Amino acid sequence: MRHYEIVFMVHPDQSEQVPGMIERYSNTIQKDGGSVHRLEDWGRRQLAYPINKIHKAHYVLMNVEASNDAMEELTTTFRYNDAVIRNLVIRRDEAVTDESFIMKAEKESRERKTRYEERQAADKAREESSAEEKTEEAAAE
User: Fold this and answer.
1) pLDDT at 55 over 80
2) What average pLDDT is seen over the chain?
3) What residue spans define the domains of the chain?
4) Residues 6+ away with beta carbon under 8 Å from 115
5) Of 25, 43, 111, 140, which has the highest C-beta tally within 10 A?
6) pTM of the model
7) What CATH architecture is 2-95?
C-alpha cells in the first residue's frame, strides 16, 4: 500500500452532495484494505482562475493509504463525475496526519476574531460602567 494526497474540487452547485461523495470515495479506498489518514473539507473557495466559467469551487483534501487498484478506480470515478471540476493525486512517502496550512490559518483567523470580539465587548462594558459612575456622581452632587 502506498500513501497518497488527494485534492479535488467540486462544482459549487453540487456542494450539498460533498459529504456523500467523500463517503463513497472513502469506502472505495477502505474496501481494498486502505485507510484515510486525514480528511479536510475546506469548503467553498474562490478559484485562482475561472474553470468552465465557474469562479468558485468546494475543495476537499484527503491523505490516504490505498492500493493501486483503489487509486485507479478513484481516478476513473473523478474523470467521469461531472461534479468534480479538477483533481490532483500525489504519491507521498509517508502518511500525513497533521493539519494542513490552510486549516491552521483558518483556525488562527477564527481565534483572532473571537479575541477581537471579546476585547470589544470588554471595552464596551468598561465604557458603560464609567458612564454609569459619572451619572451617579452627577446625581449625588
Assistant:
1) yes
2) 86
3) 2-95, 99-141
4) none
5) 25
6) 0.71
7) 2-Layer Sandwich (3.30)
For 65-120, how does the pLDDT look when each residue is reduced to its tens digit (9 = 90+)?
988 899 999 999 999 989 999 999 999 888 777 677 777 788 888 888 888 888 88
Query: From residue 65, how far is each of 22, 34, 133 by CA, in Å?
Result: 15, 5, 65
What is the pLDDT, as a whole number, of residue 141? 63
Strands of 35-51's sheet, edge to edge? Answer: 35-51, 54-66, 2-10, 84-92
Q: Write out the three cell numbers for 56.
A: 468558485
Length of the chain: 141
CA–CA gap between residue 55 and residue 49 (Å, rounded): 7
Cα–Cα–Cα angle for 71, 74, 80, rounded to 5 degrees: 145
